[in-house]
Design brief:
The complex is a heterodimer of chains A (about 120) and B (about 110).
Chain A: E1 4-7, E2 10-13, E3 19-25, E4 31-37, E5 43-49, E6 56-57, E7 64-66, E8 76-78, E9 87-94, E10 105-106, E11 110-114
Parallel strand pairs in A: 2-11
Antiparallel strand pairs in A: 1-3, 3-8, 4-5, 4-9, 5-6, 7-8, 9-10, 9-11
Chain B: E1 3-6, E2 11-14, E3 19-21, E4 23-26, E5 32-38, E6 44-50, E7 56-59, E8 62-65, E9 75-77, E10 86-93, E11 99-101, E12 105-110
Parallel strand pairs in B: 2-12
Antiparallel strand pairs in B: 1-4, 3-9, 5-6, 5-10, 7-8, 8-9, 10-11, 10-12
The chains are: A mainly beta (about 120), B mainly beta (about 110).
């Protein structure tokens, strides 16, 4: 089955540590995205990638970093510079970045808790 | 710029009640419109979409009609079930631009 996998589902880290969240897709999509979701709030775009080896900052990129070395993978690193990293992180993909009528597909999410 | 505005929740309904969740949008061109659903602790799933004015998207008893004249895409269901309890997000996508999501509307259906 095609889809997006995120791991782990729950992640606990101590304050000051960097942590990397995994996102893999086998949909052959060019575009991938990372969103942050806080309780009772909508989705905020952290980073997106239109093609391999290219990525752009979203609305709240500070304290985060990404890489896109392979089409199917788009890991997100939450660095110690992120002031309030505890949140639910969602990875998504779409056929292309600005594809208009094509929807985004979402992974199951990773809940990060910083102790 | 582009944006999506949803009615604020939470919404609580009894089983078999009629559901409406309002969504209005602002766009510079001709966007496609989407409704996503998120169950507790999960990612978002596409519920339905409409790609041009007057299109009606439908799925699992839910419907929404793309109204260009009122810039709206309200979600409706004639008879909700307990299993419909979730958070619903309205979204728009326009060629050449990113996805824009509303803030979500939480729905709880009680037996």
């Amino acid at each position: 089955d095609g889809g997006i996998t995120q791991s782990p589902k729950y992640l606990f880290r101590k304050e000051g540590q960097n942590v990397t969240l995994s996102c893999e897709q086998n949909l052959n999509h060019d575009a991938m995205y990372w969103y942050r979701q806080d309780p009772g709030q909508g989705l905020r775009l952290i980073y997106y990638s239109q093609i391999v080896n290219d990525f752009q900052k979203g609305d709240i990129a500070e304290g985060y970093s990404v890489s896109r070395e392979k089409k199917e993978s788009f890991p997100l690193t939450v660095t110690s510079a992120q002031k309030n990293p505890t949140a639910f992180y969602l990875c998504a993909s779409s056929i292309a970045f600005s594809s208009g009528s094509y929807e985004q597909f979402f992974g199951p999410g990773t809940r990060l808790t910083v102790l | 710029g582009n944006s999506v505005t949803q009615m604020e929740g939470p919404v609580t309904l009894s089983e078999e009640a009629f559901l409406t969740i309002n969504c209005t949008y602002t766009a510079t061109g001709y966007p496609s419109l989407f409704w996503y659903v998120q169950y507790p602790g999960e990612g978002l799933q596409l519920l339905l979409k409409a790609t041009k004015a007057d299109d009606k998207g439908s799925n699992k008893g839910f419907e929404a009609t793309y109204r260009k004249e009122t810039t709206s895409f309200h979600l409706e269901k004639g008879s909700v079930q307990v299993s419909d309890s979730a958070v619903y997000f309205c979204a728009l996508s326009e060629t050449g631009n990113q996805f824009y999501f509303g803030t979500g509307t939480s729905l709880t259906v009680i037996p």
